[in-house]
Specification:
Length: about 400
């Protein structure tokens, strides 16, 4: 556990402490931040308090001693519910504001791990409970230089597989050789394996109307043919197959032909314009040392699409945090699905992926942005033109 760093961040956020709680492995974030593994599934509640200053301490049930035994500080034992409340009061004595894995109105569901009843219990002791969302971002979403290198290398490999997948689609559709969405999905997964990469699921390969389903994924039982004249969306994500590697996640679109319709050209221009507007907003804020929230980035991309009359067809947030899981625990670029007021912090990465989904076809253009200390960069290739295959 990085106690000194955790306490420094608690003080930076003007809190008195960070209170962790778990029961039945409900909060994986707690175990990752504290740097421990549960010896078994806890069937009784444990608490662990890291104060802004001083020694941490915990609370364990007598039936299950040692659940947090590897952590520093005294462990207060309890058995009955009345003893638990008294011990929790003792644990938090003198504190006023504590962070927990809680999100007001569940605005950030990624950190809403503590149940409402437990929050009520802590509040009954006279404490103000605030969200740990910014603390979680500091310890879950910030990358190391080594993590950044794994991302950049994954990007080079994923971009190669994407180009090879488009080449396959071009060859098959121009030569009239049968091709299914599932064939392209298998081709991408085989390419990832050959390149030493892993992914949790996917990729998304959607033709025509299927490209308008943001989380469509072909299966052996549900797949559509890809033919000359079809519109294709390819969303793919992977990371190096090694410990602590982080993901790279992109979406490109193509027409199997040489003559896109005016609607295709227009929608592609609107989506990529929204993407570029969001990119410039992030770059400008970081370069100027300005505070920037995830919701602010979403507002830029969404406002651009709405101003072109297509806002009703942009049905998801602008982007998500990226880490060792493709959807990470940092700030999302979101003021649509949720109101994400978390700061866009240095040494974090996220996608920018606006989309417009018409009944006949859908366009999404996704890139990844990494925020450093003084600049923000797009970490891979950017699709500037609709690919003509």
């Amino acid at each position: 556990m990085q106690l000194e760093l955790i306490q420094r961040e608690i003080r930076n956020q003007k809190l008195d402490g960070w209170l962790f709680f778990d029961h039945h492995l409900r909060d994986p974030l707690a175990y990752r931040v504290l740097g421990i593994a549960a010896p078994r599934t806890p069937t009784r509640r444990w608490y662990y308090l890291i104060p802004a200053e001083g020694e941490p301490a915990g609370l364990e049930h007598r039936v299950e001693p040692g659940m947090i035994g590897a952590l520093p500080g005294r462990k207060i034992p309890y058995s009955s519910w009345t003893e638990q409340v008294a011990a929790l009061r003792q644990l938090t004595a003198g504190l006023r504001r504590v962070a927990m894995q809680y999100s007001p109105m569940c605005a950030i569901p990624y950190v809403a791990m503590v149940d409402a009843g437990t929050v009520e219990l802590v509040r009954s002791l006279g404490l103000e409970v605030v969200s740990s969302a910014e603390l979680i971002q500091a310890f879950e979403a910030r990358w190391t230089p080594e993590a950044l290198e794994t991302h950049l290398e994954a990007g080079r490999r994923v971009d190669r597989v994407r180009a090879e997948a488009f080449a396959l689609i071009r060859e098959r559709t121009r030569n009239g050789v049968p091709l299914q969405e599932i064939d392209v999905k298998r081709f991408v997964l085989e390419g990832f394996a050959k390149a030493g990469m892993a992914t949790d699921h996917g990729p998304i390969v959607g033709v025509n109307a299927n490209a308008s389903n943001p989380h469509y994924e072909p299966t052996e039982e549900a797949t559509a043919p890809i033919r000359r004249g079809d519109f294709v969306l390819l969303d793919m994500w992977a990371k190096l197959d090694r410990p602590e590697a982080v993901y790279y996640d992109i979406t490109w679109t193509a027409l199997c032909g040489d003559s896109p319709t005016e609607a295709m050209r227009n929608v592609f221009a609107v989506v990529t314009g929204a993407r570029d507007a969001a990119i410039e907003r992030v770059k400008g804020a970081v370069a100027g040392g300005q505070s920037l929230r995830g919701c602010d980035v979403d507002d830029v991309a969404r406002g651009y699409i709405e101003s072109r009359g297509l806002g009703a067809y942009f049905t998801h947030r602008t982007g998500h945090s990226i880490g060792q899981e493709v959807h990470g625990s940092g700030a999302n670029m979101d003021n649509f699905e949720n109101h994400d007021e978390r700061r866009v912090s240095p040494w974090t990465c996220f996608s920018i992926e606006p989309g417009v989904y018409l009944p006949e076809f859908g366009v999404r253009s996704e890139i990844d942005m990494f925020v450093g200390d003084r600049e923000a960069i797009v970490t891979g290739e950017i699709q500037r033109e609709l690919a003509l295959l």
